[in-house]
Amino acid sequence: MLKNLNNGLHLEIPKNKKTYMHKCDICDKEIFEGDNCYKIDGIIYCPKCMDTHLQIIAETIDIDAFLTDLENKEVGD
Fold first, then answer.
1. pLDDT tens for residues 41-76?
2. Where are the alpha helices (DSSP H) in 7-62?
3. I need a labelling partner for 75 at 20 to 30 A (CA). Which of 19, 27, 45, 59 fits?
4. Number of domains the chain contains
């Protein structure tokens, strides 16, 4: 025991290796345990590719028109 204490190994920070989990099907980024990832219809996305995917498929709305329409529906009820 004293031999190990004298060699300084007890002072080293342990190396925490993350376990490889997936690879993004879009950009091939490796995704490790604890990292965020998303799966839609069997396709795995990293957070960056998921944001891009959502921006592509999302419908752009005119927020002013939406709020006016919502306000008119509430008044009419």
1. 999 999 999 999 888 888 777 778 878 888 887 655
2. 47-57
3. 59
4. 1
User: Within a domain: residue 2?
Assistant: no
**pLDDT for position 41:** 92
In sequence order, the β-bridge partners of residue 43 are: 40
Residue 7 lies in a domain: no
d(CA 70, CA 72): 5
Residues recorded for the chain = 77
Question: The pTM is what?
Answer: 0.55
CA dihedral 32, 38, 40, 66 (to 10 degrees): -170
For 23-46, write each residue's pLDDT tens digit: 999 999 999 998 999 999 999 999
Report CA-CA distances (Å) from 58 to 37, 52, 54: 19, 10, 6
Contacts 24+ apart (CB under 8 A), 1-7: none
